[in-house]
Amino acid sequence: MRELLIICPFSSFNMVKLGFNLRTTAYPMPVVLVGAVVNGKPNFMAVAWFSKVNSNPPMMMVALGKRQYTGEGIVENGCFSVNIPGEDMVSETDYCGIVSGRVEDKARLFDVFYGKSVRVPMIRGCPVNYELRLADTVEMPGTNLFIGEIVGAYVDEEKRSGEVPDLTLVKPFMLMESPPSHYYGLGRHVADAYEVGKKLKPSNT
Amino acid sequence: MRELLIICPFSSFNMVKLGFNLRTTAYPMPVVLVGAVVNGKPNFMAVAWFSKVNSNPPMMMVALGKRQYTGEGIVENGCFSVNIPGEDMVSETDYCGIVSGRVEDKARLFDVFYGKSVRVPMIRGCPVNYELRLADTVEMPGTNLFIGEIVGAYVDEEKRSGEVPDLTLVKPFMLMESPPSHYYGLGRHVADAYEVGKKLKPSNT
């Protein structure tokens, strides 16, 4: 089989597919810090299970384990923040994924600021911050999906290109969850989106 | 203000936060190809709005516009696939985000295979494939969140390290959605996860 693969490198027909553990997350996810006021104090946790889920109005989803301390604050206040750390904050971010706000004051690490609501703590050191109003909660077996409508979006003045955040300056990083677990930065420009595929249109062949 | 920032590079207090368009997605997301049988034929679409949402059982969420052709197949069959393309498939992936299966047969681009169910088409050329059973659908203003339980996970034999996919071999790529829209590869190793933050524990200071 190995020899066949070498002889026919452009054919996918000889590739052997093998099963792997269903719980292995085999793709990178950006890491964000989710913020909420819990028991009257700001708290932050690292989350790699999140996504945009709606465009108009703009909405995001974060999936938090049911016993997460931060989740209590989201339920209590009906709002939360999503902060995008740069590579220079990888230690603080990792720390917020290791320890619980139940036992340690993680906000001590950050300069906290507020946007429209004093119940939505955000991290000034993170170049990009989203402020959200809880719109819906979906209960899963082990998590709660907190779906929020974005009501504020903030970026460091010097991390922009034109009117929007410049991700080559923001320098977000990704978590490779499958062990060994690593953080990776953004790599090279691979292609222009909504462009490189046009050549495959039947009219072009 | 600019001068202050240069003089005090380690202080975040002088950074000016500015608002930006609430609809701008200012973080990278991995791009996947979501597969379903629609009207009896396999179809695939590019999606960057997706996430793991539960660990046990392992579950994933994909957010699809309500008029997406692929969504019709997911509703009809109650199952779908999530395929992780490598950088070598960036053109095909982009194409699947540009054109609708309503007007063009996108499956012609791929060698399609099936796992446990003949209703879940997967792409052999994508090094990692997940097979999912639809567990829940959450209706958003403009999208449907299809939440699936992972029932099969497949990887190319030569894209593994040990028993799990090796993402440095899989070479997934990320979409920077905010214009100009670009695809980026994975970059350098920044730090070890669940490790680099330990030094911030109070007992260590």
Question: What topology emerges from the helices and strands here?
Answer:
The structure is a homodimer of 205-residue chains.
Chain A: H1 2-7, E1 17-19, E2 28-30, E3 32-38, E4 41-47, E5 50-54, E6 59-65, H2 69-77, E7 79-84, H3 90-98, E8 112-114, E9 121-123, E10 128-139, E11 143-156, E12 160-161, E13 164-165, H4 167-170, E14 174-176, E15 182-192
Antiparallel strand pairs in A: 2-14, 3-4, 3-7, 5-6, 6-11, 7-10, 8-9, 10-11, 12-13, 14-15
Attribute tags:
7-stranded antiparallel beta sheet; homodimer; mainly beta; 205 residues; 14% helix; 3-stranded antiparallel beta sheet; disordered N terminus
Protein described:
- 2 copies of one chain form a homodimer.
- Helices cover 14% and strands 43% of the residues of chain A.
- Chain A has 205 residues and is mainly beta.
- A 7-stranded antiparallel sheet of chain A has the order 4-3-7-10-11-6-5. A 3-stranded antiparallel sheet of chain A has the order 2-14-15, with no helix packed on it.
- The longest helix of chain A is centred in the middle third of the chain and has 9 residues, at 69-77.
- The two termini of chain A are 33 Å apart.
- Residues 1-12 of chain A have low confidence and may be disordered.
- At the A-B interface, strand 1, strand 2, strand 5, strand 6 and helix 3 of A face strand 1, strand 2, strand 5, strand 6 and helix 3 of B.
